[in-house]
Amino acid sequence: MSSTTDAASRATDTRRGAAAEPASDTGQGEVAQSRAADTATGATAETAEAPAGASRAASRPMRADARQNVAALLDAAAAVFVESGVDAPVRSIAQRAGVGVGTLYRHFPLRSDLISAVFRHEIDACVAAAAEFEAEYPSGEALDRWVMRYTKFVATKRGLAAALHSGDPAYEPLAKYFSTHLAPTLARMLDAARRSGDVVHDVNPGEFLAAVANLCHAGDPTGSGQPERMVRLLLAGLRSPA
To answer: Within 10 Å of residue 93's Cβ, how many Cβ atoms?
Structure first.
């Protein structure tokens, strides 16, 4: 009787193992399907979820190699967004970063996660540039240089405006991050320029940033740098007497 019971137990365990085994490949299957979809269709709006366990892994401190992969992905995504817009296939981003598509999805399960991370990273860099300009140049010149730095950031990010105003809840924190980091930076630089006499007119920092963004998003089909010229006229208007 004992041997019969043991055999039945082993058979049950075998069946359970066979039933559970495919589940271990779920994450790999999703990545494989994503690769196939990208290859076959050049998909541009992937929303596939990360491999199983990614949320648990994300809560743990990153290893050095994982941090390097994230940095490479952010740099690659920023470059691809400039060339092809924020709807570019994730496959091309992963290839440029030198990692697999699975690695990209592990760190950024959704496209909105990647877009938000890239823009936060670049907003931080834009804010940091302000401190560098302030330390190196007089307040008026520092203001000009930073506004042009911001102009380049906005003008080269195709699809940013559409993402921010898409109504997608995923981008609501990004819009707030944008305004709470860049507007105070500009306000500080405007105050310094007014104290030095380089700026004679008051302007709302948020409205000024929005005006620059509108000029950039209007496009420049001739490739002649029209947004930059128009932004310089805005800056000149801050200095001209009424």
So the answer is: 26
